[in-house]
């Protein structure tokens, strides 16, 4: 297990969980379901069950360093990668994988977001082990694909070549990022598409070779400065390196171009928790379809199919309300119909235009 590593990406803002998720306190550091653990704490615990704790690295924005250390004090400073600016997932992954290869040239690496929900952890662990085994044996870039349950337009889709039914790993044919509803329906009907979970498994050598082949300028930034990684000059080097990095996802940079991309179809109760609606869909509701977080703080009268997330010491009473999302933070109250949640992005733009960053 000394050659197995995990990289947890915790650099996002989670703006669709506004007003609870904000720039200074994004969703990965929140206890979304009121379980007593934040999303990043849950993700860390999930990985340390199968990967040595000292081999788990976390990438986050430098403004969230103290928050991360507060929630995961057991993670040593040398395993926290601080990004000076947000540059999407390709620079994040390039940084982490070069750093780990510098420590262990034989490393096999699992890369995962910090804010996903996994309901069946036993199946998740089994899938990760299968992916690690396959990636360690051959130079394959492996992604996990979720069997779709509906034509959702909020996910990326992976089309695979079925090949031998005896082989669980499938060769990837195409990636499609967030199609419209009609296209998503055709994907579901075809039966050879999966949701892209954004969880990757590869050897350090395989991903660095792919970065060199498809985004050479990005890879060269970290390759040329590899001798600074894991040294007292790393932070200074990264501050300059990120200024030169393009803002690009690993999907666009590598996964859509490489020939050695494979998908492992999995089923373990997954959600990327992208919206309040996804929380509503997954959480346990009362007999009228209402969800309250925390449970004891909300009283419903003649109300159905509503979701309320409020401060733990505040009582909320709803009467005669249907199909609404009500979310309260310290300085913002959001009330929006469930079927109009997609408008939050525009609302944030309007809030910034009128009030600056005060409420963001």
UniProtKB/TrEMBL annotation:
SUPFAM superfamilies: Guanosine diphospho-D-mannose pyrophosphorylase/mannose-6-phosphate isomerase linker domain (SSF159283), Nucleotide-diphospho-sugar transferases (SSF53448). Keywords: Nucleotidyltransferase, Transferase. InterPro entries: GMPP_N (IPR049577), ManC/GMP-like_b-helix (IPR054566), Mannose-6P_isomerase_type2 (IPR051161), NTP_transferase_dom (IPR005835), Nucleotide-diphossugar_trans (IPR029044). It comes from the Bacteria. GO terms for molecular function: nucleotidyltransferase activity. It holds the Pfam family NTP_transferase. Residues 297-348 form the MannoseP isomerase/GMP-like beta-helix domain. Residues 6-286 form the Nucleotidyl transferase domain. PANTHER family: MANNOSE-1-PHOSPHATE GUANYLYLTRANSFERASE. This is Mannose-1-phosphate guanylyltransferase.
């Amino acid at each position: 297990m000394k050659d197995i590593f995990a990289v947890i990406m915790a650099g996002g803002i989670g703006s669709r969980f506004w007003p609870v998720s904000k720039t200074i306190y994004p969703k990965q550091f929140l206890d979304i379901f009121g379980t007593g653990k934040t999303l990043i704490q849950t993700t860390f615990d999930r990985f340390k069950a199968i990967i040595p704790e000292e081999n788990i690295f976390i990438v986050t924005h430098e403004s969230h360093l103290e928050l991360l250390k507060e929630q995961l004090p057991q993670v040593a400073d040398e395993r926290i990668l601080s990004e000076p600016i947000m540059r999407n997932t390709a620079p994040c992954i390039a940084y982490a994988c070069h750093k780990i290869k510098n420590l262990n040239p034989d490393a096999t690496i699992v890369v995962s977001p910090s804010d996903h929900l996994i309901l069946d952890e036993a199946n998740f662990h089994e899938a990760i082990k299968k992916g690690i085994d396959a990636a360690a044996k051959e130079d394959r870039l492996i992604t996990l694909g979720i069997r779709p349950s509906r034509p959702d337009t909020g996910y990326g889709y992976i089309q695979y070549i079925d090949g031998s039914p005896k082989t669980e790993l499938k060769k990837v044919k195409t990636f499609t990022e967030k199609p419209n509803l009609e296209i998503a329906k055709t994907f579901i009907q075809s039966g050879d598409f999966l949701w892209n979970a954004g969880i990757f498994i590869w050897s350090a050598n395989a991903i660095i070779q792919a970065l060199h082949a498809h985004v050479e300028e990005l890879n060269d930034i970290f390759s040329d400065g590899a001798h600074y990684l894991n040294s007292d000059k790393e932070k200074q080097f990264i501050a300059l390196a990120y200024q030169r990095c393009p803002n690009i996802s690993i999907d666009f940079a590598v996964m859509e171009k490489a020939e050695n991309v494979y998908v492992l179809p999995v089923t373990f109760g997954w959600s990327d928790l992208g919206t309040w609606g996804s929380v509503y869909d997954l959480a346990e509701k009362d007999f009228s379809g209402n969800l309250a977080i925390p449970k004891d703080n909300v009283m419903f009268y003649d109300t159905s199919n509503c979701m309320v997330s409020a401060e733990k010491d505040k009582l909320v009473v709803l009467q005669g309300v249907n199909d609404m999302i009500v979310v309260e933070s310290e300085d913002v109250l959001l009330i929006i119909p469930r079927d109009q949640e997609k408008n939050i992005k525009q609302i944030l733009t309007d809030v910034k235009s009128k009030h600056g960053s005060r409420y963001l």
